[in-house]
Amino acid sequence: MRASHARRRAALKRQERALAAALAAVFLGVGGLALPLALSEGAWAMAAVAACGVLYGVAWARVAWLGRRLSGRELLVPWHVERGG
User: Fold this and answer.
1) What is the spatial distance between Cα 84 and Cα 45, in angstroms, rounded to a whole number?
2) Residue whose C-alpha is closest to residue 82's, from 21, 16, 5, 15
3) What is the Cα–Cα distance from 17 to 49, expressed in whole angstroms?
4) Residue 42 near residue 68, CB atoms below 8 Å
């Protein structure tokens, strides 16, 4: 039943996919720049925030790539692929 629920998710419009891609680029870019800077300065809290930003960017990139919103399970366990049946 969960697999069929995932199939029923509405596809995103082109503008929504573009927005998701833009958000992914921003979060990946800023997080990717902030992470090494924070680590080199020994700012561990800022490094943790930057790492979360990178992960958030990856999630937005998946939304743009798949063309639909992610479920909570897809977000937390991205390597899990449900089999139909």
Assistant:
1) 42
2) 5
3) 25
4) no
